[in-house]
Design a protein that fits this description.
There is one protein chain. With 187 residues, this protein is α+β, with helices and mostly antiparallel strands. The chain has two domains: 77 residues, Beta-grasp domain (Ubiquitin-like (UB roll)); 83 residues, DNA polymerase, domain 1. The chain has five helices and five strands; from the N terminus they run ββαβββαααα. The chain has a five-stranded mixed beta sheet with strand order 2-1-5-3-4, with helices on one face. Strand 1 and strand 2 form a beta hairpin. Helix 2 crosses helix 5. The chain is elongated, with a radius of gyration of 22 Å. Keywords: 2Fe-2S, Iron, Iron-sulfur, Metal-binding, Oxidoreductase. One of its GO terms (molecular function) is oxidoreductase activity, acting on the aldehyde or oxo group of donors.
Length: 187
């Protein structure tokens, strides 16, 4: 019988989890949280705060299901580290309505039946709110004709809306109704 050489194995050093305390204003309510530095805004919203409107679709910033507004700008919350947002105003689909009164875009989505399974709808709504603000502020898109770049915000055509919303995917194919709902709000 051969004797096996026993190798001394040492336990790895324990992983130190870095944490910081941040203050966020989420849907109008200020919240102070101590967070692991690796926590994304999406995971914070869904797992710690129970705000499950924003969805984890691809978890790579490619589908838009997790879109929320951060300081009024639309962003993919799956890519955003929560500790980097200290002091930010975060609005989720749950924060768009005013009590029992739906946001005009939410109402238009209902009236136009601009959803099927509904999985992407919260991200579509937050993206549409941010997109309308961007357009009103004069930000062009790839579909904006050069002669439309004036001090006045351009009228959003269906092509313009589709281009501006292109970061939000819908597997059901509700795109025509989504565009119509957004058009209803821009008129």
């Amino acid at each position: 019988m051969d004797s096996l050489a026993l190798e001394t194995v040492t336990a790895p050093e324990p992983v130190t989890v870095e944490r910081s305390t941040v203050t966020l204003r989420i849907n109008g309510e200020e919240t102070e949280l101590t967070l692991d530095h690796r926590t994304t805004v999406l995971d914070l919203l869904r797992e710690r705060l129970g705000l499950t409107g924003a969805k984890k679709g691809c978890d790579h910033g490619q589908c838009g299901a997790c879109t929320v507004l951060v300081d009024g700008r639309r962003t993919n919350s799956c890519l955003l580290l929560a500790v980097a947002q200290d002091g930010a105003e975060i609005t989720t689909v749950e924060g768009l309505a005013d009590g029992d009164t739906l946001h005009p875009l939410q109402q238009a989505f209902v009236e136009r039946d601009a959803l099927q399974c509904g999985y992407c709808t919260p991200g579509q709504l937050c993206s549409a709110v941010g997109m309308l603000t961007e357009a009103a502020d004069g930000h062009p898109s790839h579909a904006t004709p050069p002669d439309a770049l004036t001090a006045e915000p351009a009228t959003l055509t269906p092509d313009e809306i589709r281009e501006r919303m292109s970061g939000n995917l819908c597997r059901c194919g509700a795109y025509p109704r989504i565009v119509e709902a957004i058009e209803d709000v821009t008129l």
